[in-house]
Design a protein that fits this description.
Number of strands of chain B: 0
Helix content of chain B: over 70%
Shape of chain B: globular
Oligomer: heterodimer
Shape of chain A: rod-shaped
Structural class of chain B: mainly alpha
Number of helices of chain A: 2
Radius of gyration of chain B: 23 Å
Largest interface: A-B, 30 and 36 residues
Distance between the termini of chain A: 13 Å
Largest sheet of chain B: none
Helix content of chain A: 55-70%
Structural class of chain A: mainly alpha
CATH topology of chain B: Sodium/glucose cotransporter
Chain lengths: 69, 577
């Protein structure tokens, strides 16, 4: 998978994590005022996990984007 | 958050329901998986491309795929349930039951697999021991992969029914159809991309459980204290100090069974000769990558108990009934007919629901689905390779064109999946998925390890010795299994103790079948004519000059990283002794 014309596996991982991170961040923001009935919901795990996935996913998406030399 | 009308179609007894955002996460995963299948199709034109991903994977990709191919549904669900049932002893299946064998594969065995240019493990047996050993290995492996794929499929369907109330047939056909599509289109390359994706997804979806669980428990020390209070003894958090006698630990095993049965025979058999995982390493782009891939896989494998074993232990401490009393999970035969009870295998979903609201729940469910589908894909892609190269190409049609074999690979993927679906329906009546899998492992994998390791390390082993040893080992394993199934008291003879429990039987049956294989191979080899050394070049230690793997600095040497990993392995075992 080293050919530059190919889509890197890491790009696939990055784009999926970025998409999931965005979904979780939006859901987490919504849950700030409507917390789910789960244990430790007051720690806002959805929001923080979404931020982490967005950062990691964004890094891999940019770093391994198709066409990047 | 609104519930999807689609899910109302599958309404029934269930643990939870998915919200719209959870369904969006699931749909995104399926869309990407199918896209990858079509993307990889353009790069799967030759048999080398289709069955070995063009042998162009880096060490990291081959390594993650190697460990991910084993991280299917049975891993996640079954071992989390086993951790609840047996405590931290279940982590042995991740550490001593994997790490030494993975390192041995990378450092000792991979050079022979790689430089022999074999396309499969049965292919290596053909080069070393001739057609007979290959036939036994290929047929038993094909059977095992199809059964395993069916077990994965069934497990996924049961989980989806238990958690979400989905119809079993719906889950089986959607899962099987998706996997068949992307493996048929892209072959091993498609399966490998999806396995790496699945590995990332499993961590993204399941890591919140131990993180939030340990926050709720307060600390690891508090968790151990709470488990000791809830269970009534402190044995559940020690890996070795309770293994002095069969009756002194929850699993009913002895340290000899763990070290020799699991740590040596089952583990080495599975990780070094099961083509499902070895195939991933054979896709590496050079010898150094092929040696490093299992070592990278071992490093990640050591971390997996965090998302599998820890949730099971946390459940012992924090799971409560609605009235605040401690929740006790039970075996599936007890839960059947008691709607208020949950089984051991439900521990991971229960913990997921405890901590994960909309969004995170979707991530967790998607991780489980990805794990199930990866398990199916791994089995069906390995089946397709062995069928095409080692059965069809070896015995039925030896002189077909390369494009014909690629077409056969695609067709055998679809047909293999259909047989798996039939298997899934057949195993619906099996009480314990894990017992079933353990039985399969020791039927075929333990004796195969005996044959392969003698073939690689002992040049005096002959073709007749390899064939008869493999046959005797496999037959004896099946024979012992049937003996215990029909006469349960036979367990005391197999495990050498009246206190042994079923898990011990699996370990000792593997050990005996391996020993029988080795003894028969050695005995038959010594009375048959030795193979000329010229025929053993590139196949056997001692007559093969090992090529340089290209490592220059210490940091590039696979052996250095193997030492690092094994050191961490010993430290972890001492910490949790």
């Amino acid at each position: 998978m080293s050919d530059n014309r190919e889509i890197s596996i890491w790009f696939f991982c990055g784009i999926l994590m970025l998409a999931y991170g965005a979904v979780l961040v939006l859901t987490g923001l919504f849950e700030l005022h409507n917390p789910p009935p789960t244990v430790l919901a007051e720690l806002h795990p959805t929001l923080w996990w979404g931020v982490l996935l967005s950062v990691l996913g964004g890094f891999y998406t940019i770093r391994f984007r198709p066409g990047k030399a | 958050m609104q519930f999807s009308p689609l899910l109302l179609l599958f309404a029934g007894k269930q643990l939870t329901t998915l919200s719209g955002v959870d369904i969006l996460i699931l749909v995104l995963y399926f869309a990407l998986v199918v896209f990858i299948g079509f993307y990889a199709k353009g790069k799967a034109n030759t048999s080398e491309d289709f069955f070995l991903a063009g042998r162009e994977m880096t060490a990291w990709i081959a390594g993650l795929s190697f460990v991910s191919a084993n991280l299917g549904s049975l891993e996640l669900m079954g071992w989390a349930g086993s951790a609840y049932q047996y405590g931290i002893l279940a982590a042995h299946w991740y550490w001593i039951g994997a790490i030494p064998a993975m390192l041995f594969l990378g450092i000792v065995m991979m050079p022979f697999y790689y430089i022999s240019k074999t396309h499969s493990v049965p292919g290596y047996l053909h080069l070393r021991f001739g057609n007979g050993a290959r036939a036994v290995s290929a047929i038993s492996f094909g059977l095992m992969t199809i059964l395993m794929s069916g077990v994965n499929m069934y497990a996924m369907a049961v989980v989806m029914q238990t958690i979400l109330g989905w119809n079993i047939t719906f889950s089986i056909w959607v899962g099987a159809g998706t996997v068949a599509l992307y493996v048929m289109l892209g072959g091993l390359r498609s399966a490998i991309i999806n396995e790496v994706l699945q590995f990332v997804l499993i961590w993204a979806g399941a890591a919140m459980i131990p993180i939030l669980g340990l926050i709720e428990a307060g600390s690891w020390s508090n968790l151990k204290k709470q488990i000791a209070i809830n269970v009534g003894n402190g044995d559940y958090t020690h890996m070795w100090r309770t293994l002095g006698h069969f009756s002194s630990n929850p699993m009913g095993v002895h340290w000899t069974g763990i070290v020799f049965g699991l740590g040596f025979v089952i583990s080495f058999g599975y990780w070094t000769t099961d083509f499902l995982v070895v195939q991933r390493v054979l896709s590496a782009n050079n010898l150094r990558a092929a040696k490093l891939a299992p070592i990278i896989g071992a490093a990640f494998k050591m971390a997996v108990p965090l998302i599998v074993i820890v949730p099971g232990l946390l459940a012992l401490a924090v799971l409560k009934n609605p009235d605040g009393s401690v929740m006790h999970l039970v075996a599936s035969n007890i839960a059947k007919g008691n709607p208020g009870m949950h089984t051991y295998d439900e521990v991971l979903p229960l913990m997921l629901i405890r901590y994960c609201g909309p969004g995170l729940l979707g991530m967790g469910i998607t991780a489980l689905v990805a794990g199930f589908m990866s398990g199916m894909a791994g089995n069906v892609s390995a089946f397709s390779t062995v069928w095409t190269y080692d059965i069809y190409g070896a015995y039925l049609n030896k002189k077909a064109s390369d494009s014909h074999y690629v077409a056969m690979g695609r067709w055998s993927t679809v047909i293999g999946m259909l047989i798996s679906i039939m298997t899934a329906y057949l195993v619906m009546n099996a009480n314990s998925i894990m017992d079933y899998v353990q039985a399969l492992f020791s039927f075929f994998v333990a004796p195969l390890f005996g044959t392969v390791i003698l073939g690689m390390l002992w040049k005096r082993a002959t073709k007749a010795g390899g064939f008869w040893g493999l046959l005797a080992g496999t037959a004896s394993s099946i024979g012992m299994f049937v003996w215990v199934q029909t006469t349960p008291s036979a367990l005391r003879y197999i495990a050498m103790s009246p206190d042994a429990k079923p898990m011990a039987e699996n370990l000792y049956r593997a050990l005996w079948s391996w020993l029988i294989c080795v003894i028969v191979t050695v005995a038959v080899s010594l009375v048959t004519r030795a193979t000329p050394e010229a025929e053993l070049a590139n196949l056997v230690y001692g007559v093969t000059p090992l090529p340089d793997d290209g490592s220059k600095t210490l940091w590039e040497k696979p052996l250095f990283w193997a030492v690092v990993v094994i050191t961490v392995f010993f430290i972890l075992n001492l910490i949790f002794f």
